[in-house]
Amino acid sequence: MPPNSTDHNLLGEDLGRLSSGAAKTLNDQVSSRENSLLSSINDSSSISNINRNKEKWSSGVAFHPQGRYWRIGGEWYDFTEFAHPGGKEILYLARDRFDDATYAFESHHLDYKRARAIIRKYKLARPLQKDLNDSHPVAAPKLLGDDSFYSDVRRRVSKYFRTRKLDCGPNIQCLSLFWTVLSLWTLSHINLLFWNPTIPFAMLHGLFSCVLGALGHDFVHQPKYKWMAYLCLDTIGMSSDAWYREHVLQHHMYTNTPLDNHFKGTDPFLVCDPTVPRNW
């Protein structure tokens, strides 16, 4: 028997309720983070908790990190649930120790268009964006345009490595040098402790330490090989973790500016201030 108009109406009502319920559930899942952030704006105590900006020092330089969210190009993001391919350490150092994550973001993503597209889903709600920007004591740097010199270089380098299927890590010659020098350093250290504690052998040991330090400088730039940086830098008495922060995220991000940890202290031999005449 064909259904009558009443059956059609009941069926339509049932489908309407199902569609409405499914849409509501999906909407709740998509906007749960945004709703929680928006509700915090109405709470003055939450706002005071969000706007931290406590002064923190990195190698003699004062920064004002926000401490809860990441600012990139004047926009704020919440990456606490983001599985960062480069690891959590650089992600949280960029947020917790410096004014801004823009320079770190721009410098470490050759395929910057893809990286910018990925982070859009983590952007905070607009009212909270305004509150955070108004309260931050340091102006936000902008993302570079496609027509900038640096963007052009990034595209070309990314294409070069991608088309040739090259690995950005150390080659076999570099790895061979690393293991050879580390072995010689170990033997030299044992020699100084137990066999020949003389000045010539101490100078030779110092030479091996310098080469290990240079290798550690390179390895600390690559998260995949950071364990080798530990073997290089920490072995000779440095801290690869401190070097990771002050060199990768400070010196390379703020080179030759007052925020660079090498800006002062190396003159007159090395003058890093571009406004000061060189000595030779």
Low-confidence stretches: 1-51
Judging from the principal axes of the Cα atoms, what is the shape?
A: globular
Strand content: under 5%
Order of helices and strands: HHEEEEHHHHHHHHH
Helices, by number, come to: 11
Q: What's the gyration radius in Å?
A: 27 Å
Portion in helices: 55-70%
Mean pLDDT: 82
How many β-strand runs?
4
Strand order of the main beta sheet, please?
A: 1-2
How far the N terminus sits from the C terminus, by CA atoms, comes to: 101 Å
Structural class: mainly alpha
Taking the sheet with the most strands, its summary is:
2 strands, antiparallel
Can you walk through the features of this model?
With 280 residues, the chain is mainly alpha-helical. Helices cover 56% and strands 4% of the residues. It has helices at residues 5-41, 44-50, 88-96, 102-107, 112-119, 126-135, 149-163, 172-195, 199-219, 226-234, 240-251, and strands spanning 56-58, 61-63, 70-72, 75-77. The strands form two sheets. A two-stranded antiparallel ribbon has the order 1-2. It has a two-stranded antiparallel sheet with strand order 3-4. A hairpin with a 2-residue loop joins β3 (70-72) and β4 (75-77). The longest helix has 37 residues, at 5-41. The chain is globular, with a radius of gyration of 27 Å. The chain starts with a helix and ends in a 29-residue tail after the last helix.
